[in-house]
Design goal:
The complex is a heterodimer of chains A (109) and B (113).
Chain A (H helix, E strand, L loop, with lengths): L2 E3 L4 E5 L4 E8 L5 E7 L6 E7 L4 E4 L2 E6 L4 E6 L8 E8 L3 E3 L3 E6 L1
Parallel strand pairs in A: 2-11
Antiparallel strand pairs in A: 1-3, 3-8, 4-5, 4-9, 6-7, 7-8, 9-10, 9-11
Chain B lengths: L3 E4 L2 E4 L5 E7 L5 E8 L3 E10 L2 E4 L7 E2 L9 E3 L8 E8 L8 E2 L3 E5 L1
Parallel strand pairs in B: 2-11
Antiparallel strand pairs in B: 1-3, 3-8, 4-5, 4-9, 5-6, 7-8, 9-10, 9-11
Classes of the chains: A mainly beta (109), B mainly beta (113).
């Protein structure tokens, strides 16, 4: 069966460091992969999309990689700040969307 | 302001009492979708709609109904709610299903007693 795993439920890092979150998937061939941020009590907010033929995408302090051979995406936040503390979700899709359970990131001052 | 609006935001009700959660978007999006979010399980898709009068089952459609009579509205109907449908529900919309970021509402917390 199809599976999406974000292999850390929670990640704690120090302000200024780079946070790296992982999304692995099995039995799936997504055309694209997206990353969302979710704050408590709010709906997810779209951050980045990367297509299967792209290796890397950047947006300000965010970087996403997509390795279809390893079936893995890495999400990096450089120079992390306490305001980056949130849950981050990866999502894979074709016509339907499947989400990972999320990784709760805490950036400590 | 571009937004997805869900109502109600919170609801406590009893087993078997039919309820409807409304969802409306003002972005002229073709694709709309409903998810439920449970601790440890993440977001799971209930139903989605590619356009008016076109709906399809997601991963967990049992116990739910949807309709898409107008482009902007996509209500979620629980004909006979049960306690295992207690959850946080999100509606989302996008321009299309393929390669498009989804815009989410702020969620509806349902408690079925």
């Amino acid at each position: 069966s199809q599976k999406i795993e974000q292999n850390s439920e929670a990640l704690n890092i120090q302000e200024g460091k780079t946070a790296t979150l992982t999304c692995n998937y099995t039995n799936y061939s997504p055309a694209y992969l997206q990353w969302y941020r979710q704050d408590p009590g709010r709906g997810p907010v779209f951050l980045l999309l990367i297509r299967e033929n792209e290796k890397e995408k950047r947006k300000e302090r965010l970087k996403v990689t997509f390795d279809t051979t390893l079936k893995q995406s890495l999400f990096h936040i450089t120079a992390s700040q306490p305001a980056d503390s949130a849950t981050y979700l990866c999502a894979l899709g074709n016509n339907d969307m499947r989400f990972g359970a999320g990784t709760r990131l805490t950036v400590k001052p | 302001e571009a937004q997805v609006t869900q109502n109600p935001r919170y609801l406590i009700t009893v087993t078997g009492k039919k309820l409807t959660v409304t969802c409306s978007q003002n972005m002229n999006h073709e694709y709309m979708s409903w998810y439920r979010q449970d601790p440890g399980l993440g977001l799971r898709q209930i139903y989605y709609s590619m356009n008016v009068e076109v709906t399809d089952k997601g991963d967990v459609p049992e116990g739910y109904k949807v309709s898409r009579k107008e482009k902007r509205n996509f209500p979620l109907i629980l004909e006979s709610p049960s306690p295992n449908q207690t959850s946080l529900y999100f509606c989302a919309s996008s321009y299309g299903a393929d390669n498009q970021p989804q815009h989410f509402g702020d969620g509806t917390r349902l408690s079925i007693l």
